[in-house]
Design brief:
Elements lengths: L2 H4 L16 H31 L27 H25 L6 H14 L3 H32 L7 E5 L2 E5 L9 E4 L9 E5 L2 E4 L1 H4 L5 E3 L4 E2 L4 E2 L4 E5 L7 H10 L7 H32 L2 H14 L3 H20 L2 E3 L2 H8 L1 E7 H5 L5 E7 L5 H11 L6 H9 L9 E7 L3 E6 L2 E6 L1 H6 L12 E7 L2 E9 L6 H10 L4 E5 L4 H11 L3 E3 L4 H13 L6 E6 L5 H6 L2 E4 L6 H6 L2 E3 L5 H36 L5 H19 L10
Parallel strand pairs: 11-18, 11-20, 18-19, 20-21, 21-22
Antiparallel strand pairs: 1-2, 1-3, 3-9, 4-7, 4-9, 5-6, 5-8, 10-22, 12-17, 13-14, 14-15, 15-16, 16-17
């Protein structure tokens, strides 16, 4: 069984494995059988058509009704050609005719099947037997090539996202058993050998190795892991044997969520896709009416009904909107697949289209533009307190928090005491923490907390974030914490500006001094500091109100603390979201690593995708308009008409596949 076939099940099972849906293999076999049948029909029809075209006239013994005068001679009675041409016509076109009749019965009249059936039956009615067969033959050949091109594109996207695990090695009764990932329970211990893909999210119990995360993040740099480290599904174990305790079932694992996002992205359609759908529903009946008018109105004044009827048939064949209906969704699908190869997950083509029109990008600072790994750089105690005491009070008060600043305080404190000394912990959002330590009331936080507690605090000349500490209402001192910008943050801002972004804005809860220093270092156009979470939403509202017509605003955050702003922005982008459930839920676009430069990459991909969509729309409409005019004037035959339909569709599909090629942006 081929590689694409084995990974089609969504529950973590391989095709053909126990419990696998039996329809998967049947669907693959049915597709292959249908394609082989079409190739056979095309070959037989082509041979019969060539034979009939060179068939000499055969005199008949007497008058026979329904005869055609052969173009090969002037015999008054020749072989009746239409029954002979009817054989290859039905061989190649019976399914088109059947679908047309079936759709008409369902009320779906105006589609490509109806147009092709009407045009070719009409050609038979005007004794254009060879053209009728050839038009149907060429149409089916074009459909076959289109189908192959679409399958190739989807296979390419599937190959880009080939991260679904085939099996898991579970330890049961001291023996490794190979089972489907969907059959592994939380708490089970699995073994991942060198070269194997990590099938489920979990924690390393034993072993050390380097994990290849390229399929998830687009980066080739391996990630070293050891006992106690969290690992996510989809990574490839490059070296040592790992024993991993499973923390999530397969349905909630990282790889399952990623695949679900990519596979279901087509459900959220871009405005270009919905426009094409609406356009086709109006366009097709309009051209049928126009063709009817072309067939019956001119003969009333100019005569020659058969000539104008033939022009109307050509008009119908040209008018099929296949190129637009197929190529536009395929282009967006290719763009989403290409972005996923770079570690960028786009939840729908509507977000990809909106990103291409973004002219304002708003950033959270901590963890987005900066590394988010804070370091204590100075401790300034007040009289009556030592530096060690100030740091210990701060570390104990923050002992129950996972915030990066809290972690840096605990790391820096060499005399960290027992957390049992801490009680009555109260976290004040956007301000800090209040707690009882050894019976003393301790407050740790920013200047807003000091103002709230009516405590006079002292400024600091050093750059960084200030953490103020009070003990029983007395100011004990402050701690200076610094956070460094990410290595590619400045380059990311410059790349966004080169991509056409008009304004970059940074929103942060940090002090104005720190925000100003970071903004100046990175080249951010505008910044707003000392903001509460609600203030960030307020600034997002103001920036959205100032957007020009058609412009879009993107907000980039960590996907957890910034969920309200991510939801409010036109496009929410989660940074550094490798394995983060909250980020995947909150954002419209998820970057699977923490590099800000990936935002510019995503924007370039989106704009390239939109360019290809516009190219296909204008190319298809332009060629069709030209050939429609030529057909109405009698300067185009059914041969040109078929090219204007099938040929243009095939060329548009080939152009759409360029959306997959994103190496230049990596």
């Amino acid at each position: 069984m081929s590689e694409p076939e084995k990974d089609c099940c969504r529950d973590g099972r391989s095709c053909g494995s126990e419990g696998c849906c039996a329809s998967c293999g049947e669907e693959h076999e049915e597709e292959e059988g249908s394609r082989r049948s079409m190739l056979w029909r095309i070959g037989v029809t082509a041979v019969l058509l060539i034979a009939l075209r060179f068939l000499p006239p055969v005199p008949l013994p007497g008058p026979v009704p329904f005869l055609s005068v052969s173009s090969a001679g002037n015999a008054p009675y020749t072989l009746a050609l239409w029954p002979l041409y009817l054989i290859p016509y039905l061989i190649i076109g019976w399914d088109i005719l059947w679908r047309a009749v079936r759709n008409i019965a369902r009320g779906q009249v105006f589609d490509e099947n109806f147009l092709m059936a009407l045009a070719t039956v009409g050609a038979f009615a005007t004794s254009e037997f060879a053209e009728a067969v050839f038009v149907m033959l060429f149409y089916q050949v074009g459909e076959l090539f289109e189908d192959m091109a679409v399958d190739h594109s989807r296979a390419s996207i599937s190959a880009l996202m080939d991260i679904r695990p085939d099996y898991a090695n579970v330890e049961r009764d001291g023996v490794l058993a190979r089972v489907a990932p969907g059959d592994v329970a939380v708490g089970d211990v699995i073994a991942v050998k060198p070269g194997e893909r990590v099938p489920l999210d979990g924690t390393v119990l034993e072993g050390a190795s380097a994990l290849d995360t390229a399929a998830l993040t687009g980066e080739s740099a391996p990630r070293d892991v050891g006992p106690g480290d969290a690992v996510i599904s989809g990574c490839v174990n490059r070296s040592g044997l790992l024993r991993i305790r499973v923390e999530k079932p397969y349905g909630e694992s990282t790889v399952s969520k990623i695949l679900d996002l990519v596979e279901n992205a087509s459900e959220k359609k871009a405005s270009s896709e919905t426009f094409i759908t609406r356009f086709a529903k109006v366009y097709t009946p309009c051209v049928v009416i126009a063709a009817a008018a072309l067939a019956f109105l001119p003969p009333l004044f100019l005569g020659d009904f058969q000539e104008w009827f033939h022009r109307a048939l050509i008009f119908l064949v040209i008018s099929c909107p296949c190129a637009l209906v197929i190529s536009v969704p395929l282009t967006f699908f290719g763009g989403i697949g290409g972005a996923s190869r770079c570690g960028i997950l786009v939840k729908g083509s509507n977000y990809l289209e909106a990103l291409a029109r973004t002219d304002t990008v708003v950033f959270d600072k901590t963890g987005t533009l900066t590394q988010g790994t804070f370091t204590v750089t100075a401790v300034h105690p007040e009289e009556g307190f030592s530096a060690e005491e100030v740091l210990e009070f701060a570390a104990l008060a923050e002992s129950y928090s996972d915030h990066p600043i809290s972690q840096s305080l605990r790391t820096a404190c060499k005399t960290a005491g027992d957390p049992a000394r801490v009680s009555n912990v109260e976290e004040i959002a956007g301000h800090g923490v209040r707690a009882s330590i050894d019976g003393k009331q301790v407050c740790v936080g920013n200047s807003r907390l000091m103002e709230r507690e009516n405590v006079n605090w002292l400024p600091c000349e050093l750059p960084g974030t200030l953490v103020h500490v009070t003990v029983n209402g007395f100011y004990a001192g402050h701690i200076v914490i610094s956070d460094q910008p990410k290595p590619d943050a400045a380059a990311a801002i410059a790349a966004l500006r080169e991509s056409g972004v008009k304004k970059t804005v940074m929103l942060t809860g940090d002090t104005k001094e720190v925000a100003a220093a970071v903004a100046q270092e990175l080249g951010v156009d505008e910044y707003h500091a000392e903001l509460l979470p609600a203030d960030k939403v307020g600034w997002a509202e103001k920036l959205l109100a100032g957007e020009p017509a058609g412009g879009k605003l993107a907000f980039v955050g960590d996907g957890i603390n910034d969920a309200p702003v991510l939801t409010r922005a036109d496009i929410g982008i989660a940074m550094g979201a490798l394995g983060s459930d909250a980020a995947i839920e909150a954002a419209d676009i998820v970057l699977m690593d923490d590099r800000p430069s990936k935002i510019a990459t995503a924007m370039r991909i989106s704009r390239k995708t939109l360019r290809i969509v516009k190219q296909n729309i204008w190319f298809a409409l332009g060629v069709k308009a030209l050939v429609l005019i030529l057909g109405a004037m009698g300067a185009a035959t059914l041969w040109e008409a078929v090219f204007a339909d099938v040929g243009v569709a095939f060329l548009a599909i080939l152009n759409a596949t360029r959306a997959l090629r994103v190496q230049e942006f990596r």
